[in-house]
């Protein structure tokens, strides 16, 4: 069974693309919370295409952190229209559940973006190398010795490059264009959030 419509790509099937997540440039590059969480959820289904149970913990980790941020948004919708507002308003209450969840979510998305970027830019490299490389740069330094082997197993379980790209669509040019667009949009939003999270008022 294919995971994309005839003549289309897997990216046509997702609920929301990162390219459709608004950034309010006039308001401290505020990133719209609802759309960002929808796009993050959509991206987690990419791990299903990798076809290995080894990726279940990676996906679960992302979904768990999405839930922490969404729970805060549902509890205080008026204070959570952008991710930045959500964080600053939660920290004012003395709590940091969603704020910490967002830190981990951004790390997971950064890992995904770096994996895919490395693979786009290096057409001769297998996915496992791109994923392992990105894991070392993003999540690994923050993971405990218990979690590292679980994630390392996933990095080794990635399919061959050609098999993965075939699951994204049968027209390679379309797949590359869609993948580049999604990764570029993801990178832009991750960069904004990492910069924000590095600021003193966003920490606890």
Automatic annotation (TrEMBL):
State the UniProt keywords alphabetically: Transport
Query: Is Transport among this UniProt entry's keywords?
Result: yes
GO-annotated molecular function: ceramide 1-phosphate binding; ceramide 1-phosphate transfer activity
Residue span, Glycolipid transfer protein domain:
31-169
- GO CC, one annotated term: cytosol
User: What Pfam families does the database record attribute to this sequence?
Assistant: GLTP
* SUPFAM superfamilies registered for this protein in UniProt: Glycolipid transfer protein, GLTP
Top-rank lineage group of the source organism: Eukaryota
Which PANTHER family does UniProt cross-reference here? GLYCOLIPID TRANSFER PROTEIN-RELATED, PLECKSTRIN HOMOLOGY DOMAIN-CONTAINING FAMILY A MEMBER 8
The protein, known as = Glycolipid transfer protein HET-C2
